[in-house]
Amino acid sequence: MAPKNMKDEVQLYRKIIARYAAAFVSENDTIFINTSSNALQILEYVECNNVTVITNNGKAIGREYCRGVNVVLTGGKLRHPKDAMVGDFTLRNLQHVYAKKAFVGCSGISAELGMTTEIFNDTDEKAFDDALNAIREKGIQVYQVHKSDF
């Protein structure tokens, strides 16, 4: 069935991307998911047992997950409207955990800048970059799940 409008089409593509990304999650994996709603949607399609999800996404609270999916929150200062957990507390906690894979949503990808976000606050932009660099330094596989005009 074809989507009725652009919003429906975007939602369809997001579901397709989330389902595809979920196929990279294996049994007994520990994964990191950032504040992206696209990345969080991946959990709807994870079919593995014993998966631990580390996230700074406050919207992870109160959602239903498959049996065997365990969610660990980073803590930190809650930034609205995304319900993102940010700041030094979040970064310190991320330094003490290890995830095998990271699913990181962003607003877009630039040849010059790499991953980009819509965050205008320089401090939060730096925190985004610091968190991503900390993840990569640990040798974690990073899957970019980004929002764009389809």
Automatic annotation (TrEMBL):
<protein>
    <recommendedName>
        <fullName>DeoR-like transcriptional repressor C-terminal sensor domain-containing protein</fullName>
    </recommendedName>
</protein>
<dbReference type="InterPro" id="IPR014036">
    <property type="entry name" value="DeoR-like_C"/>
</dbReference>
<dbReference type="Pfam" id="PF00455">
    <property type="entry name" value="DeoRC"/>
</dbReference>
<dbReference type="InterPro" id="IPR050313">
    <property type="entry name" value="Carb_Metab_HTH_regulators"/>
</dbReference>
<dbReference type="InterPro" id="IPR037171">
    <property type="entry name" value="NagB/RpiA_transferase-like"/>
</dbReference>
<feature type="domain" description="DeoR-like transcriptional repressor C-terminal sensor">
    <location>
        <begin position="15"/>
        <end position="122"/>
    </location>
</feature>
